[in-house]
Amino acid sequence: MQLRKLVLGILIMGTIACNKSVTTLPNTPVVDNTTITKNTNADVNTWIHESMTAYYLWSDKMPAISKTNTSSNPMDYFYSILYDYKTTDRFSWIDSSSANLINQLNGINTVLGIRVSAFYTDDTKVNVALVIAYVLKGSPAEKNGLKRGDIILSVDDQTVTSSNYSSVLQNQTLKLGLGAYNNKVFSSTGKTITVTKVELQTNPILQDTVINWAGKKVGYFAYLQFLTSFDDSLRAVFGRFRDKGVNELVIDLRYNGGGYVTNSDLLTTLIVKDLASKVDKVMNKRLYNDAYTKEVIKQYGAAALLTNFKMEASNIGSLNRVFVLTSTGTASASELIINNLKPFMSVILIGDHTYGKNVGSFTITDNAKRWNYGLQPITFKILNSQDQSDYGTVNGFLPDYAIADDILPYKLLGDPTETYLNKALNIIGPVAYKSNAIGSAIPVSRANKLQANAISDNPIQDKLDMFDKPLKRKN
Questions:
Q1: Closest Cα partner for 48 from 384, 371, 441?
Q2: What is the C-alpha to C-alpha distance for residues 207 and 223, in angstroms, rounded to an integer?
Q3: Beta-sheet pairing, 128-135 with 321-326
Q4: Hey, what CATH topology would domain 205-358+381-438 get?
Q5: CA distance 52 to 250
Q6: What 3-state class would DSSP assign to 88?
Q7: How far apart are CA 165 and CA 130, in angstroms?
Q8: Computed over its alpha carbons, how large is the radius of gyration of the chain?
């Protein structure tokens, strides 16, 4: 069956701003509702299979619909047709609510507004301290005075333990029992804070600052999620860096699990050296399944598979290298930045290995509004300008300088004494740091961390993905 004739009823996620507007793919065949008398699992699953046949990257590896159980629950059915699920395809997912899925991709979630790292409080490895890795701007957590480095020892009068730490923050309203860490010992302060979650638009810019270091002006930028609604905010940050004469750059992507490819491409453009010489030259390339590739080439030509550099007035311009702070939660669109830049400048990675996701997805929902499922299947692979895309493994990109994020107390992001940033600064220039009101002289020590990744108070925020949209058909 030709792609153009597939019976699809889909809404394709485009560039979605805070008002949640969407772009509908024109001329996409819609199921004739007069032929449908009821919305059975078979109806939904047939739509899922046909949608996946059209766009799924590994559509040639899917089972024929006749060999599937179309009467099964649609959530289960989706995963049953994925190719080598959890090994080759570690990433495709489905949501029972398309509205929730769209909100997630645009950084709109019901949250307390924190991400925490888990540490054992002693050698018994029973009790756990949740150390705040960051606090979202404008969140209930921030409004209640919480900040990076604060410690939670109990939730709703329940001690945090190794068996409940990953779920203890899931309630709507939370009573947090706070703690302290001094001389390698966790202890309760006796203080509690009661906080209620709200629906919040994530501001992904956690911190940006310029640090004078060893005769250099070092720009530091911590970014949480690639959101197209913050394109102009990105430009503003890098415009400030350019105007202040930044000649070294540290990008902190430790907590960035991905987002929109176009926003990731914009950040690439703002960083890359000698942008003027690269305008209209290839930044990256997309690989789709055979049927969709043929459709794109037929409609637009092979050039439509490429993304080229465009001029951006806020490009810093003079960087020879960039430092990227990474973790095992650095994924997808974050890794794309690294891969995009490697052919053009030195990219120095500090931290842990990245997640290893070199593929992305389209969002598919039913524009006939017969059911509410949202599909997020892998639909493309991205290569850089040199056809390189070899980081799609469980080890992702390996760091040039391996650092464990287990030094407590945590310093604020942007503090020159903060563990990861300090490593980058000492590569730039090994000089003794003198406190200048940002940092402090509090003694630090290594603590026993429970797991590598920080976790959110809403697990939806821990999704690791990058998103794009298919090209609109001309007719």
A1: 371
A2: 7
A3: unpaired
A4: 2-enoyl-CoA Hydratase; Chain A, domain 1 (3.90.226)
A5: 39
A6: coil
A7: 8
A8: 23
What are 389's two structure tokens?
A: 């895309």
Superfamily of domain 110-201: PDZ domain (2.30.42.10)
Cα–Cα distance list, 455 to 92, 145, 227, 255, 451 (Å): 20, 20, 20, 9, 9
Q: What is the pTM of this model?
A: 0.88
Per the structure block, which two tokens stand in for 66? 């006749």
CA atoms of 179 and 164, how far apart (whole Å): 18
Q: Give every CB contact of residue 109 below 8 A, 6+ residues apart in sequence.
A: 103, 199, 200, 202, 458, 460, 461
CA-to-CA distance for 26 and 3, rounded, in angstroms?
14
Could you tell me the sign of the dihedral formed by the alpha carbons of 95, 99, 103, 106, in that order? positive
| Residue spans in the chain of domains classed CATH 3.90.226.10 | 205-358+381-438
> Strand 364-365 vs strand 282-287: parallel, antiparallel, or unpaired?
unpaired
Distance CA 309, CA 280 (A): 5
Strands 173-182 and 151-155 turn out to be antiparallel
Closest listed residue to residue 469, CA positions, set 337, 385, 365 = 365
Angle at 117 between CA 116 and CA 119, to 5 degrees: 135
Q: In what order do the strands lie in the sheet with 378-384?
A: 258-260, 465-467, 359-361, 378-384, 282-287, 306-308
pLDDT per residue rounded down to tens, the chain (475 residues):
444 434 333 333 333 223 323 333 333 333 344 444 456 999 999 999 999 999 999 999 999 999 999 999 999 999 999 999 999 998 999 999 888 888 888 888 899 999 999 999 999 999 999 999 999 999 999 999 999 999 999 999 999 999 999 999 999 999 999 999 999 999 999 999 999 999 999 999 999 999 999 999 999 999 999 999 999 999 999 999 999 999 999 999 999 999 999 999 999 999 999 999 999 999 999 999 999 999 999 999 999 999 999 999 999 988 999 999 999 999 999 999 999 999 999 999 999 999 999 999 989 999 888 999 999 999 999 999 999 999 999 899 999 999 999 999 999 999 999 999 999 999 999 875 544 434 445 567 788 988 777 888 876 656 656 656 666 655 5
